[in-house]
Write a structure and sequence with these properties.
The complex is a heterodimer of chains A (275) and B (326). Chain A is mainly α and 275 residues long. Helix content of chain A is 77%, strand content 0%. In chain B, 31% of the residues lie in helices and 26% in strands. In chain B, a hairpin with a 2-residue loop joins strand 1 and strand 2. Chain B is elongated. Classes of the chains: A mainly alpha (275), B alpha/beta (326).
Chain lengths: 275, 326
């Protein structure tokens, strides 16, 4: 099994996608953390025009700054997941993969483990970008760069978890929809357009608002636990949910999405004809 | 090969009643045949006759509707380290265009703990060591075929299954491939090569399995396909010579399609024909072996009304004599 996982990692590392993805993760991290950081420190997002940095404790500010790019980062992770199987269908390398490992369940398992690793590694690169972009900004503004290391560190680790889970969700989508272009479009559209709209629509539906917090994007924000210790009213203006799930429940919800997609994908792959 | 002269444990291929229907369309229909170790078997059939589908079922990539394909008595999925038993090259396009040829092989090798040195040896063997570190997307068709072959040979397999391996190879490449396959068969390996051209593999294969529309139409050795030997004799007085040959127990019949004075003698023994003619006092103007034109025979077999290609419409070309000059 370790040989299979290593092989999957080798597969990922031997195309340009790996470097392009890492670069994008890093740059987007730096840009978003730097950009949103500037907005929080110098902008007037609060009703009375005071900068966010003056209303929230340093820990919350650092969390907001360093996770500013999470939406793009998880979209990239989703794409990594779709591609990890979509490319095999597209370029028909899946034949060679299944010839080398005819027990398809093992291939799926190896891909899952490899994706968790790749998702987390890309998360590390992303966070390095965030820490650079956001850190420079905070330092220049004479604000604490890394307050309450244990608490902040936990948030950053959760970023890694979130990205790994989104990669797995992408994998499920990729297996469900063997046409790579279709899978990518559908995944991106679902994550960035359909889901937020649906969530927004639910807020008008009496008795159904609670559903929205189980959606992947809101579960992601809840997993990161960004707004503990912030006035709920104000948290909402920053994009927080009304009554978010506990971080671990939210993480389980994300894991659930990933697991369901992967299992369905595996069931389909098991008997699919490879022509 | 990198290994000294070897003989490998013999492993046969057995196809039993394989059937595949794609939504009602019977691509392969109750197909059974056996492929012997130490021999090269040509798996022949026109386009769309079900060759690729059969090979993919044998390799566990397509689930048969009925029947099974066994390699050394086992289904492909049951082979413990499949690449060391079976090497397969299915299509010359199964590469990620952005991955180098060498990395493509390393990815496959990794699953079986095959070292990079073996990867490099195979690249050397198939003759593309220089291109190995370039992206496979830029490879020519011939280079892709060679890379596919290198992949098939990675695990030093006892059985080789190649789908149209000479597609895209130049004449020199085809000759090289023949030599390689002959060498591998000589080591006792089982080799199954598909082609839609009998003429192309005629010189390479020992046995043939011919299918049309998913049915078996002929199986046997290439000699059996050639049929009994025959000789063309052109003589000044063919009737007299035919009579003299009959007297010696050799059947000879007029073969006017070969021109005036031609006889088809049903023997390969030209010395005897010459001697009989001399004794009979008949001048011989031409004496040569008549060989079956396998390509034409192939057409006849696969275009017979019962096997006419369902994928095409219109009439098959009218069949003519299958005999031609050697
Ligand atoms: N996935 C599929 N779905 C539907 N029909 C299929 C599928 N795969 C193959 N076929 C049909 O099955 C028949 C056999 O196809 P196959 O590819 O096995 O032929 P082949 O002998 O390999 O032909 P060629 O010489 O062109 O490679 C064809 O008529 C083809 O159209
Ligand atoms: Mg084919």
């Amino acid at each position: 099994m370790t040989a299979l996982i290593r092989t999957e990692l080798r597969k990922y590392a031997t195309t340009r996608l790996a470097w392009g993805m890492a670069l994008a993760m890093f740059l987007l991290g730096a840009i978003f953390s730097g950009g949103f950081g500037a907005l929080y420190v110098y902008g007037s997002l609060t009703p009375d025009g005071t900068p966010v940095s003056e209303v929230v404790p340093p820990l919350v500010l650092a969390r907001l700054v360093y996770t500013a790019g999470i939406q793009v980062a998880y979209l990239l992770a989703l794409i990594i997941g779709v591609l990890s199987i979509g490319q095999e269908f597209r370029h028909k390398t899946i034949s060679g993969t299944f010839l080398a490992t005819p027990r398809r369940g093992r291939v799926v398992a190896a891909k899952v483990v490899a994706l968790v690793v790749v998702g987390a590694l890309n998360g590390v690169v992303h966070l390095l970008g965030c820490l650079l972009g956001g850190g420079v900004l905070l330092a220049l503004s004479d604000l604490p760069v890394f307050p309450e290391p244990a608490e902040l560190g936990r948030t950053l680790l959760l970023v890694l978890l979130v990205l790994a889970l989104w990669a797995l969700i992408g994998f499920g989508v990729g297996v469900l929809i063997p046409n790579q272009v279709a899978a990518l479009s559908i995944a991106v559209a679902a994550a960035w357009i359909v889901e937020p709209l649906l969530g927004f629509g639910l807020t008008f539906l009496d008795g159904a608002e609670w559903l929205a917090k189980y959606f992947p994007s809101q579960a992601t924000t809840a997993t990161l636990d960004l707004f503990t210790g912030v006035d709920p009213e104000f948290a909402r203006t920053l994009g927080g949910a009304e009554d978010p799930l506990a971080w671990w429940t939210a993480a389980l919800v994300l894991l659930g999405y990933a697991a369901v997609m992967t299992v369905v994908g595996w069931l389909l792959t098991r008997s699919r004809d490879i022509a | 090969m990198t290994t000294p002269p070897t003989t490998v444990p013999s492993t046969d291929i057995e196809v039993r009643g394989l059937t595949k229907s794609f939504g009602g369309f019977l691509a392969v229909d109750d197909l059974s045949f056996r492929v012997e170790p130490g021999r090269i078997t040509g798996f022949l059939g026109p386009n769309g006759s079900g060759k690729t589908t059969t090979l993919r079922m044998l390799l566990g990539l397509i689930r048969p509707t009925a029947g099974q394909g066994l390699i050394g008595g086992r289904r492909y999925a049951e082979l413990p380290a499949p690449l060391t038993t079976v090497g397969a090259a299915l299509e010359a396009t199964n590469f990620h265009p952005g991955r180098s040829g060498r990395d493509h092989l390393r990815v496959l090798a990794g699953t079986h703990g095959i070292p990079d040195s073996r990867v490099d040896a195979m690249l050397e063997l198939v003759g593309i060591p220089a291109a190995a570190r370039k992206r496979a997307g830029g490879y020519s068709m011939g280079m892709r075929q060679r890379l596919g072959l290198a992949a098939a040979l990675l695990g030093d397999p006892r059985v080789l299954i190649l789908d149209e391996p000479s597609n895209g190879l130049d004449p020199e490449g085809i000759r090289w491939l023949r030599g390689l396959l002959r060498h591998l068969a000589g080591e006792g390996r089982t080799i199954l090569v598909s082609s839609h051209l009998l003429g192309e593999v005629e010189q390479t294969v020992d046995d043939v399995v011919i299918i049309a529309n998913g049915h078996l139409v002929r199986q046997g050795t290439i000699e059996q396909l050639h049929g009994d030997p025959a000789t063309l004799v052109r003589a000044a007085d063919p009737a007299h010579l035919a009579e003299a040959l009959h007297g010696q127990g050799i059947t000879a019949e007029p073969a006017t399609e070969h021109g005036p004075g031609a006889l088809r003698a049903l023997t390969g023994d030209m010395v005897r024909i010459g001697d009989v003619a001399l004794v009979a006092g008949v001048a011989v103007h031409e004496l040569r072996p008549l060989r079956t034109d396998l390509e034409r025979l192939f057409l006849e077999l696969t275009e017979a009304p019962a096997h006419r290609n369902r994928n095409l419409t219109g009439d098959a070309t009218p069949s003519t004599s299958t005999e031609e000059q050697a």
